[in-house]
Amino acid sequence: MTQDKTPQEARPIMTVDAVIVTIADDTLKVLLHRRPREPFQGSWALPGGYIHVNEDSGTDAAMERILQEKAGVSDIYFEQLATYSGPDRDPRDWSVSVAHIALVQEDLLSLGDDPDVVLTDVDALPPLAFDHENILAEALARIRGKGAYSSLPTAFLPKTFTLAQLHRVYEITLGETIERVSFRRKIMEVGMVEETGQKSTVMSRRPAKLFRMKVGSQTYVRNFATAG
Amino acid sequence: MTQDKTPQEARPIMTVDAVIVTIADDTLKVLLHRRPREPFQGSWALPGGYIHVNEDSGTDAAMERILQEKAGVSDIYFEQLATYSGPDRDPRDWSVSVAHIALVQEDLLSLGDDPDVVLTDVDALPPLAFDHENILAEALARIRGKGAYSSLPTAFLPKTFTLAQLHRVYEITLGETIERVSFRRKIMEVGMVEETGQKSTVMSRRPAKLFRMKVGSQTYVRNFATAG
DNA sequence: GCAATAGTGTCTTTTAGACACTATCTG
DNA sequence: CAGATAGTGTCTAAAAGACACTATTGC
Questions:
Q1: Straight-line distance from CA A217 to C1' C4, in Å?
Q2: At what angle do helices A163-174 and A132-147 cross, to 10 degrees?
Q3: Which end of chain B is less crowded, N or C, counting CB atoms within 10 A of the terminal residue's CB?
Q4: Which CATH number describes the domain made up of B2-147?
Q5: Which of A94, A142, A149, A220 has the most B C-beta neighbours within 10 Å, making it the best mutation to test the interface with B?
Q6: In this structure, which CATH number among 1.10.10.10, 3.30.1330.10, 3.40.190.80, 3.40.225.10 belongs to the domain A152-213?
Q7: Can you give the pTM of this predicted structure?
Q8: Chain A residues closer than 8 Å to B84 by CB
Q9: In chain A, which residues have pLDDT < 70?
Q10: CB proximity list for B86: less than 8 A, separation 6 or greater
Q11: Which of A4, A11, A130, A221 best probes binding to B when mutated, by most B CB atoms within 10 angstroms?
Protein backbone atom coordinates (compact mmCIF):
# COMPACT_ATOMS: atom_id res chain seq x y z
CA MET A 1 0.00 0.00 0.00
CA THR A 2 2.78 2.40 0.85
CA GLN A 3 4.15 2.25 -2.68
CA ASP A 4 0.79 3.58 -3.86
CA LYS A 5 1.22 6.87 -2.04
CA THR A 6 2.91 9.77 -3.69
CA PRO A 7 6.24 10.44 -2.05
CA GLN A 8 5.58 12.78 0.84
CA GLU A 9 8.10 15.32 -0.38
CA ALA A 10 6.14 15.64 -3.62
CA ARG A 11 3.01 16.94 -1.92
CA PRO A 12 2.16 20.63 -1.97
CA ILE A 13 1.06 22.83 0.93
CA MET A 14 -2.72 22.64 1.23
CA THR A 15 -4.67 25.59 2.59
CA VAL A 16 -8.13 27.12 2.63
CA ASP A 17 -8.85 30.83 2.14
CA ALA A 18 -12.05 32.69 3.01
CA VAL A 19 -13.58 35.70 1.30
CA ILE A 20 -16.01 36.74 4.02
CA VAL A 21 -18.40 39.34 2.67
CA THR A 22 -21.07 41.32 4.41
CA ILE A 23 -23.11 44.48 3.92
CA ALA A 24 -22.41 47.33 6.31
CA ASP A 25 -23.17 51.03 5.83
CA ASP A 26 -25.03 50.13 2.66
CA THR A 27 -21.91 48.80 0.92
CA LEU A 28 -20.21 45.48 0.35
CA LYS A 29 -17.38 44.83 2.77
CA VAL A 30 -14.84 42.07 3.00
CA LEU A 31 -13.05 40.86 6.10
CA LEU A 32 -9.26 41.32 5.96
CA HIS A 33 -6.61 40.69 8.58
CA ARG A 34 -3.07 41.89 8.93
CA ARG A 35 -0.63 38.98 8.84
CA PRO A 36 1.26 38.61 12.14
CA ARG A 37 3.98 36.38 10.64
CA GLU A 38 6.07 35.80 7.56
CA PRO A 39 5.48 35.45 4.72
CA PHE A 40 3.94 38.84 4.02
CA GLN A 41 4.16 39.87 7.68
CA GLY A 42 2.22 43.09 8.19
CA SER A 43 0.35 42.84 4.88
CA TRP A 44 -3.40 42.63 4.65
CA ALA A 45 -4.69 39.23 3.58
CA LEU A 46 -7.77 37.05 3.39
CA PRO A 47 -8.21 34.81 6.43
CA GLY A 48 -7.04 31.27 5.79
CA GLY A 49 -5.28 28.30 7.25
CA TYR A 50 -3.88 24.86 6.73
CA ILE A 51 -6.02 21.83 6.26
CA HIS A 52 -5.67 19.58 9.30
CA VAL A 53 -5.69 16.10 7.85
CA ASN A 54 -6.06 14.51 11.25
CA GLU A 55 -9.20 16.36 12.22
CA ASP A 56 -10.88 17.86 9.13
CA SER A 57 -13.44 15.86 7.21
CA GLY A 58 -12.84 18.01 4.14
CA THR A 59 -12.14 21.55 3.02
CA ASP A 60 -15.61 22.54 4.27
CA ALA A 61 -14.62 21.60 7.80
CA ALA A 62 -11.44 23.65 7.49
CA MET A 63 -13.55 26.61 6.33
CA GLU A 64 -15.84 26.28 9.32
CA ARG A 65 -12.81 26.35 11.61
CA ILE A 66 -11.54 29.52 9.97
CA LEU A 67 -14.93 31.24 10.07
CA GLN A 68 -15.13 30.51 13.77
CA GLU A 69 -11.56 31.58 14.55
CA LYS A 70 -11.37 34.70 12.41
CA ALA A 71 -14.94 35.98 12.35
CA GLY A 72 -16.55 34.30 15.33
CA VAL A 73 -19.39 32.86 13.27
CA SER A 74 -20.75 29.42 12.53
CA ASP A 75 -23.59 28.06 10.43
CA ILE A 76 -23.38 30.76 7.80
CA TYR A 77 -23.66 30.36 4.06
CA PHE A 78 -20.50 29.63 2.11
CA GLU A 79 -19.55 28.00 -1.15
CA GLN A 80 -16.36 27.12 -2.98
CA LEU A 81 -15.01 29.76 -5.32
CA ALA A 82 -12.03 28.09 -6.99
CA THR A 83 -8.68 26.52 -6.26
CA TYR A 84 -5.45 28.43 -6.78
CA SER A 85 -2.10 26.70 -7.13
CA GLY A 86 1.48 26.98 -8.27
CA PRO A 87 5.10 27.01 -7.22
CA ASP A 88 5.28 30.76 -6.61
CA ARG A 89 2.08 31.93 -4.99
CA ASP A 90 3.44 31.06 -1.53
CA PRO A 91 7.17 31.65 -1.03
CA ARG A 92 7.39 28.69 1.33
CA ASP A 93 6.61 25.94 -1.16
CA TRP A 94 4.47 24.77 -4.06
CA SER A 95 0.99 25.44 -2.71
CA VAL A 96 -2.69 24.88 -3.28
CA SER A 97 -5.45 26.97 -1.77
CA VAL A 98 -9.15 26.23 -1.98
CA ALA A 99 -10.81 29.65 -1.85
CA HIS A 100 -14.35 30.05 -0.56
CA ILE A 101 -16.91 32.82 -0.48
CA ALA A 102 -18.91 33.30 2.71
CA LEU A 103 -21.87 35.68 2.92
CA VAL A 104 -23.01 36.82 6.30
CA GLN A 105 -25.31 39.28 7.95
CA GLU A 106 -23.20 41.95 9.65
CA ASP A 107 -24.81 41.46 13.09
CA LEU A 108 -23.52 37.91 13.33
CA LEU A 109 -19.85 38.83 12.98
CA SER A 110 -17.85 38.97 16.23
CA LEU A 111 -14.69 40.77 15.36
CA GLY A 112 -13.66 41.89 18.84
CA ASP A 113 -11.57 45.03 18.96
CA ASP A 114 -8.47 43.73 17.20
CA PRO A 115 -7.33 46.56 14.88
CA ASP A 116 -5.71 43.93 12.65
CA VAL A 117 -9.06 42.42 11.71
CA VAL A 118 -11.25 44.81 9.73
CA LEU A 119 -14.15 45.06 7.36
CA THR A 120 -13.02 46.91 4.24
CA ASP A 121 -15.09 48.45 1.48
CA VAL A 122 -14.62 46.22 -1.58
CA ASP A 123 -14.12 49.29 -3.73
CA ALA A 124 -11.27 50.64 -1.59
CA LEU A 125 -8.95 47.72 -1.04
CA PRO A 126 -5.34 47.89 0.10
CA PRO A 127 -2.65 45.75 -1.55
CA LEU A 128 -3.02 42.14 -0.42
CA ALA A 129 -0.64 39.29 0.33
CA PHE A 130 -0.10 36.23 -1.90
CA ASP A 131 -2.48 36.17 -4.87
CA HIS A 132 -5.32 37.41 -2.70
CA GLU A 133 -6.12 40.42 -4.86
CA ASN A 134 -6.84 38.07 -7.69
CA ILE A 135 -8.94 35.75 -5.51
CA LEU A 136 -10.94 38.66 -4.19
CA ALA A 137 -11.56 40.06 -7.67
CA GLU A 138 -12.91 36.70 -8.81
CA ALA A 139 -15.01 36.40 -5.67
CA LEU A 140 -16.66 39.76 -6.31
CA ALA A 141 -17.28 38.86 -9.94
CA ARG A 142 -18.96 35.65 -8.81
CA ILE A 143 -21.11 37.38 -6.21
CA ARG A 144 -22.25 40.06 -8.64
CA GLY A 145 -22.84 37.61 -11.45
CA LYS A 146 -24.69 35.05 -9.40
CA GLY A 147 -26.72 37.71 -7.63
CA ALA A 148 -28.39 38.55 -10.93
CA TYR A 149 -30.07 35.17 -11.31
CA SER A 150 -30.16 33.50 -7.92
CA SER A 151 -31.19 33.99 -4.34
CA LEU A 152 -27.56 34.38 -3.24
CA PRO A 153 -27.99 37.94 -1.87
CA THR A 154 -30.52 36.70 0.69
CA ALA A 155 -27.54 35.28 2.59
CA PHE A 156 -26.82 38.85 3.73
CA LEU A 157 -30.19 39.07 5.48
CA PRO A 158 -31.57 37.72 8.73
CA LYS A 159 -34.13 34.92 8.64
CA THR A 160 -37.00 37.32 8.25
CA PHE A 161 -36.92 40.52 6.26
CA THR A 162 -39.10 43.01 4.42
CA LEU A 163 -39.28 43.32 0.65
CA ALA A 164 -37.63 46.71 0.94
CA GLN A 165 -34.63 45.11 2.66
CA LEU A 166 -34.50 42.38 0.05
CA HIS A 167 -34.63 44.99 -2.70
CA ARG A 168 -31.81 47.01 -1.16
CA VAL A 169 -29.61 43.96 -0.69
CA TYR A 170 -29.99 43.02 -4.35
CA GLU A 171 -29.15 46.54 -5.42
CA ILE A 172 -26.02 46.65 -3.27
CA THR A 173 -24.92 43.21 -4.39
CA LEU A 174 -25.37 43.98 -8.07
CA GLY A 175 -24.17 47.55 -7.80
CA GLU A 176 -27.07 49.01 -9.74
CA THR A 177 -30.57 50.24 -9.13
CA ILE A 178 -33.44 47.85 -9.70
CA GLU A 179 -36.92 49.08 -10.50
CA ARG A 180 -39.02 48.65 -7.38
CA VAL A 181 -42.32 47.43 -8.83
CA SER A 182 -40.73 44.93 -11.22
CA PHE A 183 -38.58 43.61 -8.42
CA ARG A 184 -41.48 43.01 -6.07
CA ARG A 185 -43.56 41.44 -8.84
CA LYS A 186 -40.73 39.12 -9.83
CA ILE A 187 -39.96 38.04 -6.29
CA MET A 188 -43.57 37.21 -5.58
CA GLU A 189 -44.16 35.44 -8.85
CA VAL A 190 -41.21 33.07 -8.55
CA GLY A 191 -42.39 32.12 -5.08
CA MET A 192 -38.99 32.57 -3.51
CA VAL A 193 -40.36 33.96 -0.24
CA GLU A 194 -43.41 33.52 1.95
CA GLU A 195 -45.11 35.75 4.48
CA THR A 196 -44.43 35.15 8.14
CA GLY A 197 -47.63 36.88 9.17
CA GLN A 198 -45.60 39.41 11.13
CA LYS A 199 -44.82 43.05 10.49
CA SER A 200 -41.64 45.02 10.78
CA THR A 201 -41.44 47.35 13.74
CA VAL A 202 -40.17 50.75 12.66
CA MET A 203 -41.12 54.09 14.05
CA SER A 204 -42.71 56.93 12.17
CA ARG A 205 -43.91 55.08 9.15
CA ARG A 206 -46.03 52.25 7.85
CA PRO A 207 -44.78 48.81 8.99
CA ALA A 208 -44.00 46.28 6.24
CA LYS A 209 -44.83 42.60 6.02
CA LEU A 210 -42.03 40.27 7.09
CA PHE A 211 -41.05 37.42 4.78
CA ARG A 212 -38.82 34.38 5.04
CA MET A 213 -37.17 32.25 2.33
CA LYS A 214 -39.45 29.46 1.24
CA VAL A 215 -37.54 26.25 1.86
CA GLY A 216 -37.12 23.60 -0.79
CA SER A 217 -38.60 25.90 -3.39
CA GLN A 218 -37.45 27.83 -6.37
CA THR A 219 -34.09 29.35 -5.77
CA TYR A 220 -33.68 30.28 -9.38
CA VAL A 221 -34.72 33.71 -10.54
CA ARG A 222 -33.95 35.49 -13.75
CA ASN A 223 -33.54 39.05 -14.82
CA PHE A 224 -33.40 40.97 -11.64
CA ALA A 225 -31.17 43.16 -13.64
CA THR A 226 -30.38 43.08 -17.29
CA ALA A 227 -26.73 42.36 -17.92
CA GLY A 228 -25.30 44.06 -20.95
CA MET B 1 12.31 28.82 6.59
CA THR B 2 11.84 25.12 7.13
CA GLN B 3 9.92 25.69 10.33
CA ASP B 4 7.36 27.61 8.28
CA LYS B 5 6.39 24.57 6.23
CA THR B 6 3.66 22.24 7.32
CA PRO B 7 5.14 18.91 8.36
CA GLN B 8 5.39 16.82 5.20
CA GLU B 9 3.43 13.96 6.76
CA ALA B 10 0.46 16.29 7.30
CA ARG B 11 -0.03 16.98 3.60
CA PRO B 12 -2.80 15.28 1.64
CA ILE B 13 -2.56 13.55 -1.75
CA MET B 14 -3.14 16.16 -4.46
CA THR B 15 -4.67 15.12 -7.78
CA VAL B 16 -6.52 16.50 -10.76
CA ASP B 17 -9.56 14.86 -12.39
CA ALA B 18 -10.98 15.57 -15.83
CA VAL B 19 -14.58 15.40 -16.99
CA ILE B 20 -13.99 15.39 -20.74
CA VAL B 21 -17.26 15.93 -22.55
CA THR B 22 -18.03 15.86 -26.23
CA ILE B 23 -21.00 15.50 -28.54
CA ALA B 24 -21.13 12.35 -30.65
CA ASP B 25 -24.15 10.75 -32.31
CA ASP B 26 -26.17 13.79 -31.29
CA THR B 27 -25.75 13.14 -27.57
CA LEU B 28 -23.48 14.24 -24.75
CA LYS B 29 -20.69 11.77 -24.04
CA VAL B 30 -18.05 11.65 -21.36
CA LEU B 31 -14.65 10.02 -21.55
CA LEU B 32 -14.16 7.19 -19.04
CA HIS B 33 -11.28 4.78 -18.59
CA ARG B 34 -11.02 1.47 -16.80
CA ARG B 35 -8.50 1.63 -13.97
CA PRO B 36 -5.52 -0.65 -14.55
CA ARG B 37 -4.38 -0.54 -10.90
CA GLU B 38 -5.61 -0.44 -7.35
CA PRO B 39 -7.47 1.23 -5.86
CA PHE B 40 -10.65 0.43 -7.80
CA GLN B 41 -8.76 -1.75 -10.29
CA GLY B 42 -11.07 -2.63 -13.17
CA SER B 43 -13.64 0.06 -12.34
CA TRP B 44 -14.56 2.85 -14.70
CA ALA B 45 -13.29 6.25 -13.62
CA LEU B 46 -12.68 9.79 -14.80
CA PRO B 47 -9.16 10.34 -16.11
CA GLY B 48 -6.90 11.98 -13.56
CA GLY B 49 -3.45 12.07 -12.10
CA TYR B 50 -1.11 13.46 -9.51
CA ILE B 51 0.11 16.99 -9.53
CA HIS B 52 3.83 17.00 -10.29
CA VAL B 53 5.20 19.73 -8.10
CA ASN B 54 8.56 19.69 -9.83
CA GLU B 55 7.22 20.30 -13.30
CA ASP B 56 3.65 21.69 -13.14
CA SER B 57 3.09 25.42 -12.96
CA GLY B 58 -0.35 24.82 -11.47
CA THR B 59 -3.38 22.57 -11.65
CA ASP B 60 -4.03 23.84 -15.18
CA ALA B 61 -0.71 22.42 -16.32
CA ALA B 62 -1.56 19.08 -14.72
CA MET B 63 -4.89 19.13 -16.59
CA GLU B 64 -3.14 19.76 -19.88
CA ARG B 65 -0.88 16.77 -19.24
CA ILE B 66 -3.87 14.57 -18.56
CA LEU B 67 -5.79 15.78 -21.59
CA GLN B 68 -2.79 14.95 -23.74
CA GLU B 69 -2.12 11.55 -22.17
CA LYS B 70 -5.67 10.29 -21.91
CA ALA B 71 -7.44 11.96 -24.83
CA GLY B 72 -4.62 12.97 -27.14
CA VAL B 73 -5.73 16.61 -27.26
CA SER B 74 -4.22 19.95 -26.43
CA ASP B 75 -5.43 23.55 -26.57
CA ILE B 76 -9.03 22.74 -25.83
CA TYR B 77 -11.43 24.59 -23.57
CA PHE B 78 -11.52 23.61 -19.93
CA GLU B 79 -12.45 25.21 -16.64
CA GLN B 80 -12.36 24.26 -12.98
CA LEU B 81 -15.46 22.58 -11.64
CA ALA B 82 -14.75 22.21 -7.92
CA THR B 83 -12.38 20.63 -5.45
CA TYR B 84 -13.28 17.44 -3.62
CA SER B 85 -11.53 16.35 -0.45
CA GLY B 86 -11.66 14.17 2.60
CA PRO B 87 -10.09 11.27 4.45
CA ASP B 88 -12.18 8.58 2.77
CA ARG B 89 -12.61 9.42 -0.91
CA ASP B 90 -9.31 7.72 -1.75
CA PRO B 91 -8.47 4.61 0.30
CA ARG B 92 -4.76 5.43 0.13
CA ASP B 93 -4.81 8.62 2.17
CA TRP B 94 -6.53 11.91 2.94
CA SER B 95 -6.88 13.37 -0.56
CA VAL B 96 -7.78 16.44 -2.52
CA SER B 97 -8.81 16.44 -6.15
CA VAL B 98 -9.34 19.51 -8.30
CA ALA B 99 -11.98 18.45 -10.82
CA HIS B 100 -12.20 20.14 -14.22
CA ILE B 101 -14.64 20.15 -17.09
CA ALA B 102 -13.23 20.00 -20.61
CA LEU B 103 -15.41 20.48 -23.68
CA VAL B 104 -14.10 19.25 -26.99
CA GLN B 105 -15.19 18.71 -30.53
CA GLU B 106 -15.34 14.97 -31.17
CA ASP B 107 -12.99 15.05 -34.18
CA LEU B 108 -10.11 16.28 -32.07
CA LEU B 109 -10.10 13.31 -29.69
CA SER B 110 -7.47 10.64 -30.38
CA LEU B 111 -8.56 7.68 -28.34
CA GLY B 112 -6.67 4.98 -30.21
CA ASP B 113 -8.23 1.52 -30.05
CA ASP B 114 -7.83 0.88 -26.34
CA PRO B 115 -11.10 -0.78 -25.21
CA ASP B 116 -10.45 0.58 -21.72
CA VAL B 117 -10.87 4.20 -22.87
CA VAL B 118 -14.40 4.93 -24.07
CA LEU B 119 -16.91 7.68 -24.71
CA THR B 120 -20.06 6.93 -22.74
CA ASP B 121 -23.51 8.44 -23.06
CA VAL B 122 -24.00 10.66 -20.00
CA ASP B 123 -27.47 9.21 -19.53
CA ALA B 124 -26.21 5.61 -19.38
CA LEU B 125 -23.31 5.66 -16.99
CA PRO B 126 -21.76 2.63 -15.27
CA PRO B 127 -20.79 2.74 -11.58
CA LEU B 128 -17.65 4.81 -11.14
CA ALA B 129 -14.61 4.67 -8.85
CA PHE B 130 -13.94 7.04 -5.94
CA ASP B 131 -16.54 9.84 -5.74
CA HIS B 132 -16.55 10.20 -9.50
CA GLU B 133 -20.29 9.66 -9.88
CA ASN B 134 -20.82 12.71 -7.74
CA ILE B 135 -18.23 14.77 -9.63
CA LEU B 136 -19.77 13.81 -12.95
CA ALA B 137 -23.28 14.69 -11.77
CA GLU B 138 -22.10 18.13 -10.70
CA ALA B 139 -20.23 18.57 -13.96
CA LEU B 140 -23.36 17.85 -15.99
CA ALA B 141 -25.40 20.21 -13.85
CA ARG B 142 -22.83 22.95 -14.46
CA ILE B 143 -22.73 22.35 -18.21
CA ARG B 144 -26.51 22.38 -18.53
CA GLY B 145 -26.91 25.37 -16.25
CA LYS B 146 -24.19 27.46 -17.79
CA GLY B 147 -25.26 26.53 -21.32
CA ALA B 148 -28.50 28.40 -20.74
CA TYR B 149 -26.85 31.79 -20.35
CA SER B 150 -23.38 31.62 -21.86
CA SER B 151 -21.48 30.67 -24.95
CA LEU B 152 -20.14 27.54 -23.29
CA PRO B 153 -21.70 25.10 -25.80
CA THR B 154 -19.68 26.65 -28.62
CA ALA B 155 -16.69 24.76 -27.21
CA PHE B 156 -18.18 21.62 -28.81
CA LEU B 157 -17.90 23.17 -32.26
CA PRO B 158 -15.02 23.72 -34.68
CA LYS B 159 -13.74 27.25 -35.25
CA THR B 160 -16.32 27.93 -37.94
CA PHE B 161 -19.86 26.64 -37.90
CA THR B 162 -23.34 27.29 -39.25
CA LEU B 163 -26.21 28.65 -37.19
CA ALA B 164 -27.93 25.28 -37.58
CA GLN B 165 -24.97 23.56 -35.94
CA LEU B 166 -24.91 26.14 -33.18
CA HIS B 167 -28.61 25.65 -32.63
CA ARG B 168 -28.28 21.87 -32.41
CA VAL B 169 -25.36 22.05 -29.99
CA TYR B 170 -27.35 24.27 -27.64
CA GLU B 171 -30.31 21.91 -27.81
CA ILE B 172 -28.16 18.89 -27.00
CA THR B 173 -26.33 20.68 -24.21
CA LEU B 174 -29.52 21.89 -22.57
CA GLY B 175 -31.50 18.75 -23.31
CA GLU B 176 -34.50 20.59 -24.69
CA THR B 177 -35.73 22.01 -27.96
CA ILE B 178 -35.17 25.70 -28.64
CA GLU B 179 -37.36 27.64 -31.02
CA ARG B 180 -35.38 28.20 -34.21
CA VAL B 181 -36.27 31.78 -35.09
CA SER B 182 -35.90 33.10 -31.56
CA PHE B 183 -32.55 31.36 -31.27
CA ARG B 184 -31.18 32.88 -34.48
CA ARG B 185 -32.52 36.31 -33.58
CA LYS B 186 -30.98 36.17 -30.11
CA ILE B 187 -27.60 34.96 -31.34
CA MET B 188 -27.38 37.70 -33.92
CA GLU B 189 -28.58 40.44 -31.64
CA VAL B 190 -26.08 39.76 -28.85
CA GLY B 191 -23.29 39.85 -31.41
CA MET B 192 -21.73 36.62 -30.22
CA VAL B 193 -20.70 35.51 -33.70
CA GLU B 194 -19.57 37.08 -36.95
CA GLU B 195 -19.72 35.92 -40.54
CA THR B 196 -16.60 34.47 -42.06
CA GLY B 197 -17.79 35.22 -45.58
CA GLN B 198 -17.67 31.52 -46.38
CA LYS B 199 -20.42 28.99 -46.89
CA SER B 200 -20.83 25.45 -45.68
CA THR B 201 -20.33 22.76 -48.29
CA VAL B 202 -23.09 20.22 -48.04
CA MET B 203 -24.64 18.29 -50.83
CA SER B 204 -28.25 18.34 -51.86
CA ARG B 205 -29.34 21.47 -50.18
CA ARG B 206 -28.77 25.15 -49.75
CA PRO B 207 -25.37 25.98 -48.23
CA ALA B 208 -25.38 28.02 -45.03
CA LYS B 209 -23.23 30.94 -43.99
CA LEU B 210 -20.28 30.03 -41.80
CA PHE B 211 -19.72 31.96 -38.58
CA ARG B 212 -16.97 32.20 -36.02
CA MET B 213 -17.02 33.39 -32.41
CA LYS B 214 -16.41 37.09 -32.18
CA VAL B 215 -13.34 37.52 -30.00
CA GLY B 216 -13.28 39.89 -27.07
CA SER B 217 -16.99 40.50 -27.36
CA GLN B 218 -20.12 39.63 -25.53
CA THR B 219 -20.00 36.11 -24.23
CA TYR B 220 -23.03 36.59 -22.09
CA VAL B 221 -26.41 35.63 -23.42
CA ARG B 222 -29.66 35.23 -21.62
CA ASN B 223 -32.72 33.14 -22.03
CA PHE B 224 -31.80 30.66 -24.71
CA ALA B 225 -34.13 28.50 -22.80
CA THR B 226 -36.41 29.36 -19.97
CA ALA B 227 -35.49 27.59 -16.80
CA GLY B 228 -38.38 26.77 -14.49
C1' DG C 1 -52.94 66.57 8.41
C1' DC C 2 -47.91 65.70 7.22
C1' DA C 3 -43.92 62.97 6.36
C1' DA C 4 -42.46 58.75 5.11
C1' DT C 5 -42.44 54.28 3.48
C1' DA C 6 -45.57 50.15 1.97
C1' DG C 7 -48.03 48.41 -1.50
C1' DT C 8 -51.04 48.39 -6.14
C1' DG C 9 -52.93 49.34 -11.04
C1' DT C 10 -51.95 49.99 -15.47
C1' DC C 11 -49.74 51.68 -19.68
C1' DT C 12 -45.66 51.17 -22.56
C1' DT C 13 -41.70 48.81 -24.23
C1' DT C 14 -39.02 44.89 -24.94
C1' DT C 15 -38.39 40.15 -25.76
C1' DA C 16 -39.70 35.45 -26.76
C1' DG C 17 -42.57 32.10 -29.26
C1' DA C 18 -45.34 30.58 -33.31
C1' DC C 19 -45.46 29.89 -37.81
C1' DA C 20 -45.95 30.88 -42.52
C1' DC C 21 -43.41 32.40 -46.05
C1' DT C 22 -39.41 33.04 -49.43
C1' DA C 23 -34.51 31.75 -51.01
C1' DT C 24 -30.94 28.79 -52.72
C1' DC C 25 -28.71 24.83 -53.34
C1' DT C 26 -28.23 19.54 -55.71
C1' DG C 27 -29.66 15.96 -58.46
C1' DC D 1 -38.85 21.04 -60.66
C1' DA D 2 -38.68 18.22 -56.31
C1' DG D 3 -36.58 17.81 -52.01
C1' DA D 4 -34.25 19.79 -48.49
C1' DT D 5 -32.39 23.10 -45.55
C1' DA D 6 -31.30 28.33 -45.04
C1' DG D 7 -33.07 32.42 -43.86
C1' DT D 8 -36.95 36.27 -43.14
C1' DG D 9 -41.40 38.87 -41.85
C1' DT D 10 -44.78 39.42 -38.82
C1' DC D 11 -48.33 38.47 -35.44
C1' DT D 12 -49.07 37.18 -30.65
C1' DA D 13 -47.97 36.48 -25.90
C1' DA D 14 -45.30 37.24 -21.92
C1' DA D 15 -42.29 39.84 -19.15
C1' DA D 16 -39.88 44.09 -17.69
C1' DG D 17 -39.84 49.08 -16.98
C1' DA D 18 -42.11 53.55 -15.91
C1' DC D 19 -44.80 55.91 -13.06
C1' DA D 20 -48.82 57.53 -10.89
C1' DC D 21 -51.71 56.32 -7.49
C1' DT D 22 -53.60 54.57 -2.82
C1' DA D 23 -52.66 52.73 2.12
C1' DT D 24 -51.00 52.83 6.77
C1' DT D 25 -48.24 54.11 10.23
C1' DG D 26 -46.13 57.89 14.12
C1' DC D 27 -46.01 62.32 15.28
A1: 34
A2: 130
A3: C
A4: 3.90.79.10
A5: A94
A6: 1.10.10.10
A7: 0.92
A8: 58
A9: 1-6, 8-9, 203-204, 216-228
A10: A57, A58, B94, B95
A11: A11
